[in-house]
Amino acid sequence: MLGVCMRYAVDKAEAEDMLQNGFINLFKKLNDYRGEGAFEGWVRRIMVNSAIEYHRKYHKSLQLMDVVDSGYEPSVNATAIATLSAKDLLGIIQELPYNYRMVFNLYAIEGYSHKEIGEMVGITEGASKSQLSRARSILKEMVIKMEDKRYGNAG
Hints:
mainly alpha, Rna Polymerase Sigma Factor, Chain: A, Arc Repressor Mutant, subunit A, 2 domains, 8 helices
């Protein structure tokens, strides 16, 4: 579950705080688990909610807002993506600005809809969509730069 929290945290110490808060919530709600579905999925949801609560409490100054997207999307070599390790990919995601990373994780990794993300984070559905679009563009640029470094291309 630390890995789940790391996706939402600025650093490991913050992830550990989220994890601790998540386990406190887990133990408070343990009687609420009905045995429907996987226990791990139930715990994961509590950890994600803990990360969102942490965000609301300590990152109030980071407002998620609509971003005008230019529509420019750099192309990424499929080979470059295939050669990325999970550690590389998580490292790249960790470099996203906090607000983009939050929406990207909730949508692409946790599987929430834009409407759900908007309700959870306190933004509009449109803001969620534009934050995801911008996060994807930034990730593509990072992968291209990483590929250029690996293969010595100018860029």
